[in-house]
Design goal:
alpha/beta, 7 strands, about 230 residues, seven-stranded mixed β-sheet
Length: about 230
């Protein structure tokens, strides 16, 4: 976990203002959910197995221990979880080294949050080595804190990553806005008590209490995020 935390500047006397924004990475800020599936398909092909496309919805958005473990069990591949994790991380790192497209609206949103000095954290189920590589494109200056999936006792869908991010920023989870693209990430954020903006990438997500669903990050700006604190109290 890395942190450079600025002073909170969005709290009101009533304590009802937005205190921090917590952002998922894969599929939310960078268009990489498909990359993970491509790498998983390639790795298992090298092991002599073909992945069923229906499994994609099972493995998306979760920790590697869950997705890799599921694929080993589903295929019967003769490989350990530790060995497979190395192959997947290596393959993904090579893939993003060739191309790392950002999601529409990501650059503008990060610039706006930075310009207004909104405490912002990157919260991902990906491992630290992957986050640090992606940060070269996203810009480490845009985040006061980053939380990797291999740095918390339990990663998404458990609330631990978002609770750690809120604590690291000195923010109340109930005054944090989380932006996520998968049901797994949404579950983690909601379990932490945060307001959630879902921008579905692979599978649909339905609106719910304290959860707003939008089609793209292009619909999300600081005014929108601040409004969540009053609209869904």
């Amino acid at each position: 976990m890395t942190s450079t935390v600025p002073a909170l500047g969005t709290r009101t006397a009533e304590g009802s203002a937005l205190q921090a924004v917590l952002l998922d990475m894969d599929g939310t800020l960078v268009d990489t959910e498909g990359f993970w599936w491509d790498v998983e398909t390639e790795v298992f092909a090298s092991l002599g197995h073909t992945l069923d496309d229906s499994w994609r919805h099972v493995v998306v958005g979760g920790p590697m221990t869950r997705s890799a473990g599921f694929l080993i069990e589903a295929t019967g591949a003769d490989i350990t979880l530790a060995e497979l994790s190395v192959l997947l991380n290596d393959g993904f790192e090579q893939r993003i080294g060739r191309d790392l497209p950002l999601m529409p609206g990501a650059t503008r949103l990060l610039a706006e949050l930075s310009a207004h000095e909104i405490p912002t954290a990157l919260v991902s189920a990906s491992h630290r080595r992957i986050i640090d590589r992606v940060l070269k494109t996203l810009g480490p200056r845009n985040f006061a804190l980053t939380v990797a999936g291999d740095e918390v006792p339990r990663t998404k869908p458990h609330p631990d990553p978002y609770l750690a991010a809120a604590a690291g920023l000195g923010a109340d989870p109930a005054r944090c806005a989380v932006v996520e693209d998968t049901a797994t990430g949404v579950a983690a954020a909601e379990a932490a008590g945060c307001h959630v903006v879902a921008v579905p990438s692979v599978a649909p997500i339905t609106p719910a209490a304290r959860r707003t669903v939008v089609a793209s990050l292009e619909e999300v700006d600081l005014t929108f995020l601040r409004g969540l604190m009053t609209q869904m109290r």
